[in-house]
Amino acid sequence: MNFRQLLSRLKRPSKPAQPHGAAPSIITADVDIDGDLHSAGELQIDGNVHGDVRAHVAVVDVNGMVHGGVAAEEVVVHGRVVGAVQGVHVHIFGAAHVEGDVISTTLSIEKGAWVAGDLRHSEEPLSERARAYFAAPALQREWPQATAPASSRPYDPRRKAAG
Hints:
By secondary structure, the chain is mainly beta. It is built from 2 helices and 14 strands.
């Protein structure tokens, strides 16, 4: 065993990840699911899901609809999501319809996509803090802000000059 093999054994996640090249789990167009879905690999949704979706990669295809939250390292939306979207990398394509807040590290929205909700940047969009934000009623949500030093705050003419 060489050094790289030893390191890869030490860095293995506690949960077995989906093998490289493994096929995604597919919810076909004729399937309706009432309940939450969880996968350590890729989930492709062509049918209807009434519940939250958690996966390593979540793809809501053109005919897919999710009535609930979607959380994954990578979220790809071609269809419809009515609920919060949380992902490190979120891609919303032209035919997509998202009704809910989106929190991500990177976000791409293609021309023609329909998004109604708050867009938030976070370095840790899948953290407990992010889940707590989405769990609060919409009118009571407040994202904790880090206070910037006075020298880096934008100019405010109402603020008195230090002196």
